Amino acid sequence: xxxxxxxxxxxxxxxxxxxxxxxxxxxxxxxxxxxxxxxxxxxxxxxxxxxxxxxxxxxxxxxxxxxxxxxxxxxxxxxxxxxxxxxxxxxxxxx
Length: 95
Prior knowledge:
- The chain is of the alpha+beta class.
- It has 2 helices and 4 strands; from the N terminus they run E-H-E-E-E-H.
- The chain has a single domain (2-94), classed as Double Stranded RNA Binding Domain (2-Layer Sandwich).
- The longest helix is centred in the C-terminal third of the chain and has 25 residues, at 70-94.
- The two termini are 25 Å apart.
């Protein structure tokens, strides 16, 4: 899985980069055909926002999460993508 992380109005630190990497590599256990992932971390005044586009075989999944804490936003993003991946895999299995 190719992972691209970018920041808008935010300096990407090594800690943020490592945290996003560890959270999103766990998604690989649900679906083995994730080709690439593009993550954008941004700050708008007091709101921290994380959004990601996941390219899987057969679909492109998008999720975003916002919180006052960037780490909480990344956690929310990972859980949303996790649910979408499971749902996508179930659709293909039942089809």
